[in-house]
Amino acid sequence: MSQYIPPVSPRDEVHGYVYFARLYSKIKLWSSGTLDPEFEPNMGNAMDLWACQFLQVDYNDLKQVILDGATCELALEWCWKNGKKPSEDELDWWNSYMRNRGFRDDFTEKLVFRKAEAGWQDRDEIQSFFDYLDADDGRL
What we know:
Blueprint: E1 13-14, E2 17-18, H1 20-32, H2 46-55, H3 59-67, H4 72-82, H5 88-100, H6 108-117, H7 129-136
Antiparallel strand pairs: 1-2
């Protein structure tokens, strides 16, 4: 039995934002030693980076805020104060973009590759990277 705990689903929301709770969760699990080391090379990259770019904050600055004890909600509010608080329209766009990444877009080939790499090429329910992440974490 593994000592590692998967991060929360990318679909989990904080203040209406998808993915941010997962970014937060990965940092908290990493700091407690319960995040699978396979996650470490991508911390601050890919979707973590996109979330920080969307909020216009530096990943390492946000990571420090979280390590200093901010709750998920307070960490997001820190982003709004130190970066940008997107409008409701921008948030709707962001949520849709993130939920559908890999579905008939420029990341489709990468998703097909990752599914094949995992031996899941026949898993038709995996249509996006959110699906892939939930499957990889044992939720789908």
